Amino acid sequence: MMYKSVRGMEDILPERAGIWRNIEKACRETFQNFGYREIILPVVEQTEVFSRSLGNASDIVNKEMYTFEDKKGRSLTLRPEGTASVVRSVIENNLLKDGSVLKVYYVGPMFRYERPQAGRKRMFYQIGVEFFGSESVLADCDAALCLAQIFSRMKIPFTLKVNTLGCRRCSTKYSEYVTDNLKADGAAMKKLCEDCLRRLSSNVLRVFDCKNTSCQDILRTLIPIGDSVCQSDKDKLRVFKKTLEEYNIPYEEDKSLVRGLDYYTGIVYEAFVKGREKDAVAGGGRYDGLVSSMGGPETPAVGFAIGIDRIMDTIDLINPEGPKEETDVVLVSIGEKSLRENFRLLMGLRMKGIVSQMDYDLRSTRSQFRRANTLKARFVIVRGDEELQKKTVKVKRMSNGQEMDVREEDIYKIIAENQKNTD
Ligand code: HAM
Hints:
This protein is an alpha+beta fold. It contains 17 helices and 16 strands. Helix content is 43%, strand content 21%. The protein has an eight-stranded mixed sheet. The chain has a five-stranded mixed sheet with strand order 13-12-14-15-16. The chain has a three-stranded antiparallel sheet with strand order 2-4-3.
């Protein structure tokens, strides 16, 4: 029996895991600069945490959740996203103090039962932020600039699609407008798919998530949501766009962008990598009503999440080799005694944070050097009988082939010097 990973849930093998960690590192460091602190949450929640917040009419809740009963018959769900879990946690743990802000970030696997294809998995990783407690459009700008900073740091060319869904009053009015118009048009009603007919009575805005071309043709005849919002929401979007321009962040306005989740209010956006416009690599926006709808205090909030898997794919696109994983030192041993001495030195180097490797099986000197080349070692340290007798080691600087006989205690100085030169 040959076991295989579950469909849509892929292994990230060692040669790609380094890219994964580099993306995570770039995000974590940027989040910390922007004042976010990490929150670590369970991957399983009560099903209602998601069904109430993401919306019963959303594709995620309707079709894509991994829901199961535990042994006591409780309905549990593998989290399809992070925002609802964060909101559950900050309410449960009373982290939302009156009048103050809270900024948290999270990273981890999410689960959606989608049709697996390039860039679409059933288990994927998100890293995201949630910023609670500010009504100001500057909070929207703060989040979007943080997202943009991550892309520029990783040198990934991107563009944002931005829109506003307006305040709750605006979106309620817009929902009524869409419902009335569709219901009044008998021919359109006949053309709408079953899902959209259901959405008409649960949450009409979700019709805009429909991939069906005949539904899309009908929806194109309606005024887009971005044009229907009140002046105050239009003003906020204007400030948001102006800020993006000030920081040279490429964006385009997409007045029909609604995002696929019910909790958004106000400004929303998605990030796309240039040359790969099919799927967003990140998405987010404002969600002022979610905390109170889940039993917490009235709290304005903004946030976004980045799909790490999709970023990995784009890095492959831009730089097929991915970032280099460096090895400082490879130790070459000649004979049993040298092997023992090198093992002791190897551990000493590692304890000092110097990335070091060696062969434990006394393969030929040639093959040990070959490994050093594969690992792109900056130094090779060789110890044979002669060095053992002299109580020295031979250090070879691989960039220029220079060889030095040095005492062990001087190795650290030479490596440190080299690091300074290459920084
Ligand atoms: P989302 O747009 O559903 O938003 O997901 C965010 C990102 O997760 C997407 O842009 C994409 O990169 C990645 N993603 C989603 N589904 C898949 C999949 N099947 N395979 C691979 N990657 C995927 C949210 O989840 C919101 N919670 C974001 C947010 C945070 N809004 C406010 N705060």
